[in-house]
Amino acid sequence: MQKDVTARWLKAIAPRAKLLLIMRFTAFFLLIAAIHVQANGYSQRVSLQLKNATMQEAFNSISKQTGYQFLYNDETIAKAGPVNLSTKNSDLVKTLDLLFRDQPLTYSISGTTIVIKPVRQVPEQKPPPPVAIGIRGIIVDDDGVPVAGASVTIKGQKNGTTTGSDGSFSIEVPDSRARLVISHIGFENREIAIDNKAALERIVLVKQNTSLNDVVVTGYASQRRTNISGAVESINGKVLNARPQGNAGQMLQGVSPGLNISTNNTGGEPDANMNFNIRGMGAPFVLVDGMPMNINQLNPADIESISVLKDASSAAIYGAYAPYGVILITTKKGGSADGKPNLSYNSDFAWSAPTRLPRMANGLEFAKSWNDAAANAGMAPIFSDEIISRIQQYMNDPSGTDGTAPDPLDPTKWGKHEYANASTDWYDVLLKKWSLRQKHNLTVNGGKDGFTYYLSGGFL
Asked: Coil, strand, or helix at residue 274?
């Protein structure tokens, strides 16, 4: 009984199972066929022999061999260049890559359609313009003195500036690779690299060796040193400014060979007049801007240059006024590049002290030495025993004895040294251990084009 039921059930489901199995096999083979077709489409092989062909001719040849269609715009492929391509049994994708290489076109494959489109142009990014750099600095000479009016330009450009009265300047350069060219009359040109520096160190200009080209004042004319055969010495104002002395006479000491300068009875005090002679002869004839003048009355800060005419040939033009030579002084002139007034102030401070002072004899030593001198000369003693006793008494007790005594001939006056008892050290009384000296100069100058001015004042 059980076997019959099972047989009948198998007989009932057999047709259905057979149909389901056939459907499964059919779907499997259809999937395999589709994959095979797609694989064949993407693995098409192409052979091309193109020389100076158009892009459209290349598309037609590929379409005939593969069955793929090209979709494009005529204006798009018009931008393409001539095609030179040789392939043999090459893969389609590889062939398309070779075709569009170095062309302004690209492609994409959608099924059996090849879509052609222009290459997207990436806008070129221009580098940002260089940022200007502000540069500042100070220019000085080899003595450390600021150089005013020096020219500062950018190499290869016309942009530039000039230094002020304190030697400072500021200028904008296009970038850190720029170089500055610095020049000034009487100095060698110098080129400075920026190297990302906003503030340059002190720039030192070296003086040119142009002594033979210096202009020297000789009498009523000016000549170059190379044309002078007489004994003429020219002293530049910069040499004088480097010597902080009280007056012009003291500043000239030691700067001109053969020019002898000595103090008079007033000594070396600041307002003392100096004595001059050239080569040991008499006093020279002194002219300031062509006018006779006492050199000691001239402010040293106003001197531009000094010429010393030492021999007869160079001083002959002045005749009997200059038998012992001539000192010609030229003062500074006004004027500025822009005509604006320039204000300048400088000051010097100095401390001085005696190098060595002699030891003074006391009153007793002084009196005995005079008596010894008188005895050697066969004369009576100048200081009596009474006076010497009084001097000795003063030295033992200064508070109990007067420093001096009245003159017996005129009691209203103090007696001279033979009536004096004190031992006064006059060097210690009159001279300080040290003294302060200061000098201040203020100048204003400007103007141009025929009208210039120069005003100065000094305090010593």
From this structure: strand
Q: Determine whether domain 42-118 maps to CATH 3.55.50.30.
A: yes
List, in order, residues 6 or more apart from 161 with CB less than 8 Å away. Answer: 152, 169, 170, 171
Per the document, the length of the chain is 460
Angle between helices 55-66 and 92-99 (to 10 degrees): 180
- Can you name the residues that pair with 47 across neighbouring β-strands? none
Expressed in angstroms, the distance from the first to the final Cα of the chain is 153
Q: Of 130, 148, 129, which is closest to residue 139 (Cα–Cα)?
A: 148
pLDDT per residue over 108-157, tens digit each? 888 888 888 887 766 666 666 666 778 888 899 888 888 888 888 888 88
- Judge whether 136 and 168 are in contact, CB under 8 Å: yes
Please check whether residue 163 is in contact with residue 155, taking contact to mean a CB–CB distance below 8 angstroms.
Answer: no
CATH number of 133-205: 2.60.40.1120
| Helix/strand/coil for 210 | coil
Instruction: Please check the confidence at residue 16 and state whether its pLDDT lies above 70.
Output: no
